[in-house]
Amino acid sequence: MLTMKKYTIVFIACSLFSLIISPKAHAQTNPLIEKVAQKLALVNDYVAEGVMKTDVSFIKASLGKVKVYFKKPNLLKVKKEGGISLLPRGGVSLTINTLLNTKQYTTIPAGTQVLNGKNLTVIKLIPTDENLDWVISTLWIDPVEALVYKTATTTKENGSYEILMQYGEYAKFGLASKIVFSFNTKDYKLPNGITLEFGDEDPAVKQKLLKNKKGTIEINYNNYLINKGVPNSIF
Amino acid sequence: MWSLIQIELYKIFRRPRTYIAFGAIAALIVVIQLGLKIDGNSYAAFLMKDINDTLTVDGKVLNGYLICYILLQLLLVHVPLLVALIAADMISGEANLGTLRLLFSTPYSRTHWVLAKFIAASVYTILLLIWLAFLALFVSMWIFGTDDLFLMKSNYVVLIQQGDVLWRYVGAFVFASFSLLTVTSLGFLMSSLANNSIGPIVGTMSAIVFFTILSTLNIPLFTIIKPYLFTTHMNNWKEFFDIKVNANNEAITGSVLNIPKIKTSLIVLSLHIVLFVSASILIIKKKDILS
Amino acid sequence: MIKVQHISKQFGNLKAVDDLSFEVQAGQVFGFLGQNGSGKSTTIRMLLSLIHPSSGSIEIFGQPIEKNRAAILEQVGAIIERPDLYPYLSAKEHLQLFAKVRKQKIESARISDTLEKVGLAGRAQDKVQTFSLGMKQRLGIAIALVHNPSLIILDEPTNGLDPQGIADIRQLIQYLAKEEGKTVFVSSHLLSEIEQVANQILIIHQGKKMVEGGTKELLDPQKRIVQIKTLDDAGTLQVIVAGSFSNYLLPRKEGIFLKIPTYEILLLNESLIKAGVALLAIESKNALEDYFLQITTNA
Predict the structure, then answer these.
(1) Which chains would you list as touching B if contact means 3+ CB atom pairs under 8 Å?
(2) Does the ipTM surpass 0.85?
(3) Taking the model in full, what pTM does it have?
(4) What is the per-residue pLDDT across B239-274, written as a single tens digit (0 to 9) for each?
(5) Closest CA to B280 of B192, B182, B195, B205
(6) What is the set of domains in chain A, with CATH numbers?
(7) Per residue, what are the HEC states of A192-233?
(8) Is residue B162 within 8 angstroms of chain A, CB to CB?
């Protein structure tokens, strides 16, 4: 009897130990996350056309046409059609598709929250692979539609950002019709000796710059080409 | 009058000295383009240091349009000195040579001669600017290619779409022509006061340096006079590269942020040109030609 | 042709020209004589409207210069003081350039003829920076002549010329006046040259007119001016004063000068030798030079 008890203790200890020492081997899943992941699993790749708007206090940029390329599991590229694009550092690549497709995370339920009139389930993801770029990500998910309406992710090297999503005709694939990236901005300043600008500074500009330390990049998608094949050379 | 302009242009372009400015501009631009071609990425990285903390910039930032902007910033400070070399020599140079008395004893009035000389000097200035434009813009576009214009100002960044850039450069060069013609007219005025060219050339350069300092110093005492100084307005060609944003902070393609500022500057520069040239004519008309 | 009435020019405290009046008739060769700094160039510059007179009036071709400048100067050709030109242009280019400022069209043949006239046909394509002073002077004269003016103003035209060049200019002036009927206003301090070409002279000294008149009238060809050189000037002077030649004595600070009819020079010679004067020479002086010195010394 003592031996049986001993074996049970050892078995439990080993199980617990294996959980601790080999996080890669085993990720805890959440049924809602699974539901979302299943929906997203329908998409092997897509090419989306959209219009990108950059709203950062110290940047004046016009709307620009973009193409967004995605390929399973986590390849993502935003390309402006002719021209220079500005994207949050490291942030764009971490969409829901790329987050969930890694399957290297533990889920922690975090209750519910009402967002824009929707009752959403809040779930936190913690990566189990220490090579991943992110530290923690919180998802706000509609439990009925299995659609993620908001993520808030903290990265290892590129700060924290939020992504808000809206859905339209591609909701069944879990693909948003509008994505808004929000991120913190640092101060921008170039010395007058470099820019050769020695005129008086516009006080309105200065005021605007002082007020606003957050930036957003918004992409409105108007077309998805799903599962048509995307070559790796794009990325 | 047309004959006089032809004569003056002929004299300007027969002098070897005239081509120094064209050569100097070409040498300056080629050296800068070469430097940026070899090591431009370091320069761009330095400029984008603050931006790269927050954003990833994807695209050809260091393209012909940006190179041209950098070149204009550098050269439109120094080209006035090259303009002064010819403009400040137009009358005093002839007085020094002794040929002024030959010209003023012909049937054409002194006013005709002075205007013809100013027009010829202006043609030279415009040709110099066209040469600068060709090298700075079109050769840069050829070497570095084109993309959106990613302008890093002191406090903010302006991203202008490719298709929205070229007309702005046309506007900027037209504006720059007014700036340079103001320098031409100032040199011309100095030239009408002296009988040799060293004084007017040095005087013109000194005046530009002096007034530029007054224009850029943020001392309250100078605030009153700044709006009236031509040097305050000379660099406002840059206003063509600042765009309006709507309530959503979206840049409005094809817009210019401060058109009234451009208009005011053009008026001030034009008034200076008229004032300087009129003063030259009055001085020359009254002057006894003793050289 | 030229009518100058009471012109003056003040530069600060200096009165460069003082109440000067004269007239130049059509077809004349008018000699304008004066030492350096006497006001010649200032007067010429006023004629050409390069300098504004402080007072007085100038009419050329019967019209006031300040009101009809363009029409007047269309018919005037001038060279003023030294020949300053564009070193980077050739002789031909200079003439082409100055031909362009005339209302009348000046043919290429005229340009070639003018260069021929001044002896520069062989150097037409050469840049002026390679020219000697004399060649530049010729080119300056060519510029004054290229448009066939009716009044030619030459300020020191023989400056820098060799004796042959001087003779050529003299012949040119005579040709222009006699053959082409031009009026020539020539200033110089080379009195011997003016004497040979001018039929009217004016002597200016310190901005003031000293004398004006026909060359022939001013310089009596029947009398010559002679200088008597001896070992004893004082004694010789006493002899002349006591004798019959005293009327011919000219007042001079130094030396013994007489203005004496040519035929009496021999008699004078004999008289002096008879009186025991240690006579070294009786020298004939340039008439106009002497006249000029006389006028300007006594002023």
Answers:
(1) A, C
(2) no
(3) 0.81
(4) 999 999 888 888 899 999 999 999 999 999 999 999
(5) B192
(6) 20-227 (2.50.20)
(7) HHHHCCCCCCCHHHHHHHHHCCEEEEEEEEEEEEECCCCCHH
(8) yes
